[in-house]
Input
Amino acid sequence: MADVVEDYAWRADEELARFDAAPPLRLPFADFARHWEMDMRFSDVPQRNLAIEDEAGQRIGNVMYYNLDRWRKEAEIGISIGRREYWGRGYGSDAVRALARHLFRTTDLRRLYLHTLDWNVRAQRAFQKAGFRPCGVAHRNGHSFLVMELRREWFFPIPGDGQDAPGSPGRGAAAPG
Output
């Protein structure tokens, strides 16, 4: 519950909402906190949100996976760095790479994918640094997105070697959030 205040502030932020192609949150804080707590305590939805922390353990954002499809063996991922002073410093790539490593090592997922706004070149570079490759475009609610994917065989190029092709995370760590 310690994270609810930051999550609320980040979701209500106009600029952060623009990067998420969503309207800023306008729900009263008390309502948001009640829903947030229920989701954290009782949700059985196949999605997980993880905190991104800097080297000192300060929470700077979130990384998550959702739209888990066990039949296709794929899931969608997303990320948000809420603290602007950490933008462009590699924390996003590190967190995405750490999440991919975790999912590929602990599940039978074969593919991770994401949607990023077509104009968000900084995010696209960060995802490419983490090993993702463009694979298509999507249009939703008047926005155009670049669809990117990461496949298990790209991440672990030699079956069973357990080594990451895109490198290993350095700075931040993904922690339950």
